[in-house]
Amino acid sequence: MDASEKGRVEEEVKMVVEQAKELQDLAAAFIAKTSGEEQSIRQRAATLDSNIRRLQSLIHSLLEHKLLDQTLADKLNEELQRARFVITDGEASAFLPSKAQGRFLRMFLGPINVRASKKDIQLKVKEEYNSYRDRTALLFLLFPSALLMLRSWLWNGCLPAFPVQLYQAWLLFLYTGLALRENILRVNGSDIRPWWIYHHYCAMVMALVSLTWEIKGQPNCAQKQRGVQLFLQWAIMQGVAMLLQNRYQRQRLYTRIALGKAKRMDVVWGETAGVDGQLWLLCPVLFIMQGFEAYVGMLLLKTAIVGVVSEWQVIFCGMLLVLMAVGNFVNTVQTLMTKSRFKAKMKKSKSKQELN
């Protein structure tokens, strides 16, 4: 390599270094500019959100003191609700104050911000959650069904310990994945009720404890494994309920989103129901499943009390099943009452409009 070629290479290297410094300065200036604009938009979004809440509270107070007509109040609330949907379901939602990340997320992910900056990324998170629910609902149905069939056909009515513990390990993985995804969805503006996340915490703890539970065999295998058998039967019912919910209620949720009655980040809850036909189909399944869950929990407690299986894990899992059944029932009833009050309010408002 001659001197002229060496000089050209040195010049090109110097040029690249200068271009890198120039690009860094441009990027820093752009970030500083956009950061200032972002802070201004965040302040405006927070102020607007606060004003909407203040006006809703004011309308409610005036209505209570009979200083405002019900029809006008409904109209104003509807307009405020529409304004809220504009800022919470569009790109402006990224600038609203985010919900605090709970201990569960910090425990698994550390102090990482999981709030997506763009709406399309938030929606991808929601679609991944729905996809995860679809996959696990089918497995929730097939896994316990296979165990019960093999128990009758291959294992002579007595479940081996390993397949049951493998199923319990899968439940731990399932509920941990659901809880993580639901916490991330809440941070990104979803409307998941806290109880359903707590329910998955309880299910995680139960799956973890059940992994240490010794599965008894012969003699009297059928009596010792009665609780396990009923739990698998309840799991099959839950799998059916999840499939029905995913099939019917998500369609209704998409309709509500199109009508502006739900946000795009909202998801199907464990207890929600759609139109009246779905209420008649899903509610009996949900109530039967909750009653059966409580029955399995009481049976586990009974087996521990009479001494058939006296391990502490049996008592703990029995208490958790009863607790989850009661919590599910209370939240289902609360949701149905809320729907009933909303429908009555809508009918009353419609009747007033027809009279006017």
Automatic annotation (TrEMBL):
What is an example of a Pfam family matching this protein? TMEM120A-B
Recorded GO cellular component terms are:
membrane
What protein name is recorded for this chain?
A: TMPIT-like protein
Principal place where this protein is found? membrane
Q: Which family does it belong to?
A: Belongs to the TMEM120 family.
Instruction: Output the InterPro entries linked to this UniProt entry.
Output: TMEM120A/B
Membrane topology recorded in Swiss-Prot or TrEMBL: Multi-pass membrane protein
State the UniProt keywords alphabetically. Answer: Membrane, Transmembrane, Transmembrane helix
Q: Does the keyword Zinc apply?
A: no
* tRNA processing in keyword set: no
Location of this chain's protein in the cell? Membrane
